[in-house]
Amino acid sequence: MDNRQGVERLFRALREYFAAPPYENEVVVVLLIPAFLILAWLWFSKGPTRTGPRFPAKELEFFRMASLQKGLEEFDRTLLLDLAETYQIRPIYKLILERDAFRTLQEKFRRDHPDTANTGTKKPSVVYLAQLEKKLFPEPGAA
Fold first, then answer.
1. Each residue of 66-103: pLDDT tens digit?
2. Please, which pLDDT band fits residue 29 given cuts at 50, 70 and 90?
3. How many CB atoms lie within 10 A of CB 45?
4. Distance in angstroms (rounded) separating the CA atoms of residues 130 and 81
5. Rounded CA gap, 110 and 100, in Å?
6. Distance CA 140, CA 134 (A)
7. How many Cβ atoms are within 10 Å of 96's Cβ, its own excluded?
8. Nearest Cα to 106, choosing from 135, 77, 121, 84?
């Protein structure tokens, strides 16, 4: 048997299989193909997110340079980067250079992490952000 006869035999078997009068097989195949295509599309589109840098390289470099000039430590820089990513503040260097952007970040953080109601004390993370604001934006007369 050569290739041509094998292909003809395969096509004939497929034709006989799908030529049954109830047409259930055709309906199942017609429904399964789009379902598999949709599942494959969802699998690849919702797969792992990009593993590259979260911020553009120049923006990140400027942020690091400005934060070093402001005297921030590595923990402070990492904290600000994570919060900027969480609350989608772009460009990130606005947190260091503009008081309004930093206060916007603080308000969003306070909204998501409210103070403890039963003790009335502020959470340490909220207090730390207030201290960081004083470090980044000192009052003009307090030098």
1. 999 999 999 999 999 999 988 989 899 999 999 999 99
2. confident
3. 7
4. 17
5. 15
6. 11
7. 21
8. 84
